[in-house]
């Protein structure tokens, strides 16, 4: 389990744990429950808000090891997700499988055999002869 300081990393949130703990956000779970309004009321800059959003996404998708590197780009989560997995791999050192996971989006209809790019994945039906 990460400490609050580890979660905040070495970027724009480094050294800001006191702001969070004095307002009751004293662990990673409570920090991830913050809304945009909560962030604004604490006086966080847009850059800090973007960093928290990015870190929460990465943590939720098992990709937190890339948090400092991706935060250092200065790009928002939305900007990074509009890019390509090959850029994430070559420019930011993300493993190819991890870059694919980062880019995945659920189909709005919830059909797991389609990705957001409309590419059909696998849909096997097993029929037993017994």
UniProtKB/TrEMBL annotation:
InterPro entries: SAM/pointed_sf. This is SAM domain-containing protein.
